[in-house]
Amino acid sequence: MTRIYLSIIKILSFMVVLTFSTSNAIAQEKEKWGEGEIEKVEIEIVKEKQISLPAANRNFIKVPPRPAEPIKPEITYDFQNLNFAVNDYNPAIRPLRLQQEPISKLYNNFISGGFGNYLSPMLQGNFTNKRSKEKFYGLEFFHQSFGTGPVDGKNSASGNTEFSLFGKSFGKYGNVAGRLGVENFSNRFYGYKPDPNVNQTADKQAYSIINLAAEVESKDVSDFNFNLLGGFSYLSDKFAASESEVSLNFKSKYNISDEQKIILNSDYFLI
Known about the structure:
Blueprint: H1 2-33, E1 109-116, E2 120-128, E3 135-146, E4 158-170, E5 174-188, E6 204-218, E7 224-237, E8 242-255, E9 261-270
């Protein structure tokens, strides 16, 4: 225990002496240089020594040339002019042709018919020519009638019949077309109080219409083109009433240039 105490005392004494010496050294430095001041110092580095190495000695052994050996037999060269000619090559190239789509079959005739309640027969048909680049013509008809009706039997009957002929011709410089139509429709008036003494012929009205039409038009082959359409219709009824109508329609166009044209349209109606 005594030795341990002595050792501790020695260590403490050493630390006290070391602390005192360090404080004196710091105080002397501050007195010498002044607190917080750094003097200007120039440092010059001079390099005078040069590194030199001696030249290395390289000794190479040269390979002596190999003696030439004569070739037997000796090589000889023979130069000749060769003429090479071939025939002209004409490949047979066949262009690929697209297969044309088949033209669908044309059913140029049509007819249908039927029969319904209220004693109502129906018949309809249409007949035309087949495909042609020069002409187009045909006829059509339609009929539908009701022998009785929902009010008072035959006193509410009605009917309608239509028939027409048409055609068109295609020429080199223009087209011509025409049409003829006939139409008839009838009705009975049933807006009365049912009475067995009512005259069955006085309550019926029937209309008949006849119409004609013609058309001439030019094709777009020159600077001037036109279209002239004329029509006539005549209407009459059961009670001797009638009405006529005449109509004309004219359209024309004259091309002065690609950007300028003159257009003239006119209509005429007479009733």
